Amino acid sequence: MLRLLRWTAAAAAALLVAGCGGGPSGGGHADGKGPGSAGAGTPAALPSSLTAQRLDWHRCTSTGGTAAPSDAWRCATLQVPLDWSKPDGRTIGLALIRARATGSHRTGSLLFDFGGPGGSGLSMMPYYGATVSRLRERYDLVSWDPRGVGASEGVRCRSDRDIGRAEDVDATPDTPAEERAYLRDAADFGKGCRKAAGPLLAHVSTTDTARDMDLMRQVLGDRTLHYFGISYGTELGGVYTHLFPERVGRLVLDAVVDPTADTVGHAENQARGFQRALDDYLKSTGQDPRRGSRKIAGLLQRIDARPLPTASGRKLTQTLAVTGIILPLYSETGWPKLTSALAAAERGDGSQLLSLADDYNERDSSGHYGTTSHAQRVISCLDDRQRPTPARTKRLLPRFERISPVFGDFLGWDTAGWCHDWPVAGQYDTPEVSAPGAAPILLVGNTGDPATPYEGARRMADELGRGVGVELTWKGEGHGAYGNGSDCVDSAVDAYLLNGAVPRDGTVCS
User: Fold this and answer.
1) Cα–Cα distance, 474 to 229 (Å, whole number)
2) Strand pairing of 430-431 and 308-309?
3) Which of 14, 27, 351, 499 has its CA 20 to 30 A from that of 392?
């Protein structure tokens, strides 16, 4: 299965490693919007055992399976309700990480969500700390593993062996037998998640995490929430602002998800975004984008019929090949690797594309897989109420193929398979993010962003409401804008977060 929305820093890290809801969980809305109304706030008064808890900050022993960070970072556990409609009931622990502000004029805490959904803040925050080191002069840098992720009741739906077997399932079925196998695999994944997560499976929505953030804000001692959300983290930020508009401090949303897109619309946006990034890559190599795309599509068709051999002895399937093409498009620094990998595949060697696919899938040399995609799926399938049928998907495929001859089929079929026969009902068609009266929120869009096309920033601004969303556009490449090489973007974001200077809506950084 392919679901391409990923977080900025992790995609960059993978390239370096390669050498390169409606109200409380279970709710719903007849109008297809969620979550709740802006005045809903917290479902019930919170007990002092939650709001007055004192965090025990200690040296981090590890961060999501990586080596422990430096002494500047400390970790703690925050208790939050499993079910936000029952704040006096069972609690679960959220793993937090923090580096204290270095300057004498501290503004407060700055929370980071790196997206996914499913990205581990414990793993990514120390890595990203160098990028945002200037912000640490005024802020405590704080991140966490959201519920269902990593050290916060992380969900693992399949064994490594079963994941490896599933890689042989054709994600663009061409025959009735392949279609049955594809849908059976999707249903089996959901069953594994239900068994692994138990009651938690119904309480990992974006709405639940937004409420967790507000409790986090209270326990950290901040009057308002200061927040930096990347990729899916922008949707989380939008949901928070809708629930708690009066508590919005300084919020930056970078690589903005289109909040008006439903399941099919989101897949179409990504097909358009990745094709746009592929076109830009092909132009950079002197190729005509249409011809180059047809050539790559032809290569994928040949691999579908006859998977390529690799140095490891494993086979490069069509699904793994397209995954290997996707990863280098997250950052312009990955384009040379894509050139080399495609050339090798044309010669009949799938080793380089397989290596890139393994990095995207978090597979190490021993065959162990990470669980980001597991958390990503349990969160997004609880959020998304729509369940396109295979019949509807097949009717949509020609439209997807017109958008992208390379990625269209994969993203089209994904709409049917991602949450097929999911054991918990989804909450809404599109998230509600309107936040009348909230303080200005800075939205950063990148014209070359493959995973969250830049049009999403304008749509988020419109949905937030007049005077709330302030759009900043960068004419660049890759997923996200801040820290990706634009002094114009970095200066504007820093001025906003450090000094409260709001740029003019519609500002463009070339």
Assistant:
1) 17
2) unpaired
3) 27
* Residue from 479, 486, 490, 494 carrying the catalytic annotation: 479
Name residue, tokens 């804000």.
217
Per-residue DSSP letters for 53-107?
-----EE-S-BTTBPP--TT-EEEEEEEESSTT-TTS-EEEEEEEEE---SSS--
Residue 444 contacts residue 457 (beta carbons within 8 Å): yes
Q: What interhelical angle do 263-284 and 335-346 show, nearest 10?
A: 90
Burial level of 474, CB count in 10 A (0-12/13-18/19+)? buried
Torsion angle, CA of 385/391/394/399, rounded to 10 degrees? -60
My answer on whether omega of the bond before 117 falls inside 30° of 0, hence cis, is: yes
Q: What single-letter amino acid sits at 414?
A: D
Nearest residue to 431 (alpha-carbon basis) of 278, 165, 243: 243
Can you name the residues that pair with 430 across neighbouring β-strands? Answer: 33
Please say whether the beta carbons of 351 and 311 come within 8 A: yes
CA atoms within 13 A on the CB side of 20: 29
For residue 68, what pLDDT band results from cuts at 50, 70 and 90? confident
In the numeric block, the tokens 């949303």 are attached to 253
**Which residues have C-beta within 8 Å of that of residue 169, sequence separation ≥ 6?**
181, 182, 185, 319
What's the gap between Cα 55 and its chain centre?
A: 27
Catalytic residue (one of 231, 293, 404, 486)? 231
- CA-CA distance, 144 to 123, in Å (whole number)? 9
**What does the pLDDT look like over 257-288, one tens digit per residue?**
999 999 999 999 999 999 999 999 999 999 99
Arithmetic mean of pLDDT, 244-269: 97
Flag whether the pTM goes above 0.90. Answer: yes
Q: Is 58 known to be catalytic?
A: no
User: Angle at which helices 176-197 and 408-417 pack, to 10 degrees?
Assistant: 50
Q: How far apart are CA 78 and CA 95, in angstroms?
A: 7
Find the catalytic residue in 279, 414, 449, 494.
449
449 tagged catalytic: yes
